[in-house]
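Technical annex, item 7. During the second reporting period the consortium partners agreed on a shared format for inverse folding records so that results from different sites could be compared directly. Each record opens with the tokenized structure and is followed by the designed sequence. A conforming record, contributed by the partner at site C, is shown below for reference.
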């Protein structure tokens, strides 16, 4: 059985303003194959998550967030 390789991402998302934002971010990423351990913070405006780069790229995650209304700051 092949071992999954995980990459940790921390994305700055200035549009996070309240708990609804956190729910939307969680909902948009929770079912994406290769994404796990999603944590978002209103205080820091950061989204921390782990990805399996064989299944999903950081760019794809950023696109998903942008489409949900929460673009990551470069």
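Designed sequence (site C submission):
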């Amino acid at each position: 059985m092949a071992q999954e390789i995980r990459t940790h991402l921390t994305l700055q998302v200035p549009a996070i303003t309240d708990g609804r934002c956190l729910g939307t971010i969680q909902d948009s990423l929770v079912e994406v194959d290769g994404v796990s351990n999603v944590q978002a913070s209103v205080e820091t405006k950061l989204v921390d998550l782990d990805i399996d780069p064989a299944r999903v790229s950081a760019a794809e995650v950023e696109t998903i967030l942008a489409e949900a209304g929460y673009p990551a700051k470069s």
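Residues 7-67 form a domain with the Alpha-Beta Plaits fold (CATH 3.30.70.100). The mean pLDDT is 94. All partners now use this format for quarterly exchanges.
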